Amino acid sequence: MSKWFLFNFILLVILLWNVTNYFSFPNLPLHIWFGVTGALLFLYNWTRNAVFETIRNVPNRRTKVRLARFSKRVVTIHRWTGNIALLAILVHGLLVVNHYGLILSHSKMLVGVLALLVLSFQVVTGWLRLYKPTIKLRYIHLYTGMALFFLILLHIIL
Ligand code: HEM
Ligand code: HEM
């Protein structure tokens, strides 16, 4: 089992904790709904890393094959969930800027903008990977995903 399952679960709990404690919960403003949707879709895609790590580390061959088959089945969804995450976050960012203005001295907003840039890069490297799979692109796609995990965590706890 990959340690990333635990890390992802912790991010999910922090996310749910934050939004359920929002002052108007469950009547959340639209920008928060879009932010939550983007974060959940990111988590879904990032869990691929945890599954891949488990496939590499699990000693039992039958479990390995079962996990690999399952992983192959969900990979076509991966590209669309990645794109929809970007779209949701774009709307989230636009609604936020519309509501509060773009204030980059506000650390939550600054980290949000950084996360949006990294997410766009993640989607681009994903498509490149699909058409030109190289080892270098694989690592870029993987480490950008990891950077994104910590940026989103920071964005939510700030
Ligand atoms: C990958 C990118 C992003 C993700 C996953 C994301 C996710 C979220 C989530 C889940 C929330 C609600 C939870 C909380 O307040 O702690 C939130 C709030 C917020 N986000 Fe983002 N966000 C992203 C990008 C952005 C961008 C680009 C901006 C600014 C342009 C931004 C600005 C904000 C602000 C100001 C809030 C607080 C809103 C409020 O409390 O009314 N975020 N974000
Ligand atoms: C939220 C955005 C995304 C995240 C967090 C993400 C994350 C990941 C992770 C963790 C892996 C496994 C890494 C490894 O090789 O060990 C992966 C694989 C891959 N991703 Fe993404 N990805 C995202 C968006 C996309 C998009 C938009 C595409 C577009 C086509 C894409 C295409 C791929 C491909 C082709 C693979 C290899 C699949 C395989 O070997 O089965 N990704 N991604």
SSE inventory with pairings:
Elements lengths: L2 H18 L9 H28 L3 H40 L6 H25 L3 H23 L1
Helix pairs in contact: 1-2, 2-3, 2-5, 3-4, 4-5
Bound molecules: protoporphyrin IX containing FE (2 copies).
What features would you describe in this structure?
It is built from five helices and no strands. It has helices spanning 3-20, 30-57, 61-100, 107-131, 135-157. The model has no long low-confidence stretch (mean pLDDT 95). Residues 15, 18-19, 32, 35-36, 38-39, 42, 89, 92-93, 96-97, 100, 108-109, 112-113, 115-116, 119, 152, 155-156 line the site of one protoporphyrin IX containing FE.
Average pLDDT, rounded to a whole number, is: 95
How many β-strand runs?
A: 0
* Overall 3D shape: globular
Q: Give the ligands present.
A: protoporphyrin IX containing FE
- The Rg value, from CA coordinates, equals 17 Å
Largest sheet: none
Q: Could you state the oligomeric state of the chains shown?
A: single chain
In whole angstroms, how far apart are the ends?
30 Å
Helix percent reads over 70%
Range of strand content: under 5%
Which residues sit in consecutive blocks of at least 5 with pLDDT less than 50?
Answer: none
Tell me the number of helical segments per DSSP (H or I, 4 or more residues long). Answer: 5
Elements, N to C (H/E)? HHHHH
Structural class: mainly alpha
